[in-house]
Amino acid sequence: xxxxMADTIRFLCADMVQEANSGHPGAPLGLADIMVVxxxxxTLNPKNPNFINRDRVVFSGGHASSxxxxxxxxxxxxxxxxxxxxxxxxxxxxxxxHPEYNHPAGVEVTTGPLxxxxxxxxxxxxxxxxxxxxxPEIDHKVYCLCGDGDLEEGISYEACSxxxxxxxxxLVIIYDDxxxxxxxNVEIAFNEDVEMRFKAQxxxxxxxxxxxxxxxxxxxxxxxNSDKPTLxxxxxxxxxxxxxxxxxxxxxxxxxxxxxxxxxxxxAGFNPDEKFQIPEDVLVRFRCMVEKxxxxxxxxxxxANVGEIEAFFKKDYSKIEYPIFNKGDxxxxxxxxxxxxxxxxxxxxxxLGGSADLAPSNNTNLNEEEDFPVGRNLHxxxxxxxxxxxxxxxxxxxxDSYVATFLIFSDYLKPALRIAALxxxxxxxxxxxxxxxxxxxxxxxxxxxxxxxxxxxxxxYTFRPADANENVAxxxxxxxxxxxxxxxxxxxxxxxxxxxxENVDRGAYILRDGKDMTILASGSEVSLALEVxxxxxxxxxxxxxxxxxxxQDEEYKNSLLVGKVIAIEAASGYEWYKYASEVFxxxxxxxxxxxxxxxxxxxFDKKLIVERIKK
Length: 615
What we know:
Elements: H1 2-20, H2 26-41, E1 56-59, H3 65-75, H4 82-86, H5 116-134, E2 142-146, H6 148-152, H7 154-165, E3 171-177, E4 180-181, E5 184-185, H8 194-200, E6 204-209, H9 213-222, E7 230-235, H10 258-268, H11 280-286, H12 288-303, H13 306-313, E8 330-331, H14 333-347, E9 351-355, H15 359-362, E10 377-379, H16 384-397, E11 400-406, H17 410-423, E12 428-432, H18 450-455, E13 461-463, H19 468-480, E14 486-489, E15 495-496, E16 509-512, E17 517-521, H20 525-536, E18 539-542, H21 546-551, H22 554-560, E19 564-568, E20 582-584, H23 595-601, H24 606-614
Helix pairs in contact: 1-2, 1-3, 1-10, 2-3, 2-9, 5-7, 5-16, 7-16, 14-19, 16-17, 20-24
């Protein structure tokens, strides 16, 4: 029966790719046997995809998307139909070319860029380890299917290193070890000893034949009580069951062809002329997942205090008592941000986060909390990319999560940040040391183009507060916004408190009124703009969130922008040309020297700017 079930999966996936004339049939066919046995071991509730104690199943190789959708349908998820499988990769279909978070329900995370899913799975396992310390009845596993490409990407090494460090014993990575990449055998570019690599990182490693049902079954039984994270190295054949194409790299990213599919179905005892065929006895076996899942949820609800768990994840932001700052105070926005984070954490129990080994510099430590896994202070080490993907997993799990590093190192986690925006994750990204005021560390550590990069990401918001008061207002606004990542660009140097705003809901507001000229600025340059405006009797508009301002109607924008419009920002600033006729920014990399000297060297000086404007 298992063989018949596996062949059903194979031919569903092959037909999906063939119907679309696009996709990746090789991995789904190779993994079909594993999926049959895995279905017997995992607990999901297709009637309630959000069941808190479900096992998380992550397909890190997004090219296995036809397999993801086939399994969701076979398991009985109402979010997907057979017609959806037939519309694979078509415009407007929910069966996209690579899986997207909750689209359809049952897809745990957005995968596609290789390695992201491995780090997401580590994040899920971290989230589970933390929450089970508070609610021991939450005892699910995290399963991740990955391939050679995932293990070649550096993010997987970062993430698995952290998994070993924290002994995430509920993490099970199933490695589709088929030795094939797009260009041929993986040995042309990848020949390391994967077993020793993972053992060195603190994993248990099991080696099995990925087409032997008994070996798969025994391995999945063994991991149930593992004292370490586990890697199951499953030796598989890509495109298993595809007559004439088994084991060929050509099956990775191209349809098998009608003739091959017909011959393969015939060899397996299936009707060669019927597409998308699912034998009734096979469907009944797979649909047992529904009854098993509903029973598991009912039993969980009996033993667990569901009300307490729901209360833990509830986010009542009205309870936050924000710190108070007075005009004339002078402190870095990273410092005021640290106070704000602690205020939020006191009110929101599911608010947690950490830094890439920079907590003392980022000011991100929660002072009354212990370290993970008991407490809410996470230590990621120097692993920015994995940190970003783990942040997305915490968000998908239900936490309010944040991560932090220097703004210049946002480049290291940009792929995960982009996935956050694409997935509509509401999470927080704190970037300090936001300008050439970093000073002596020089051009390698001074962000120039990073602000423009962050602001260019669709469905995201970047806040660059001018001072501590505006920082509070930015957080008030960010917490109200929905379904998008929130980024904060914060100073290392002290910024005098010059604002007394209540909110920044519209992204920009008039800080100082004047005539004939409007100066736009964000962050530490707002104080400089005020100094310049005093000399010229100009209006100053503080723009703590460019994206929010950009979303406003023309009437509001025009009410702020009078006369000649210029912008001041210690960055590349190309986006400001949408509103300003001239931008006082930086078109080169930075320089090493005292922060104030570097600032003036690049023209960020009241006298120099006034002279340039007058000319």
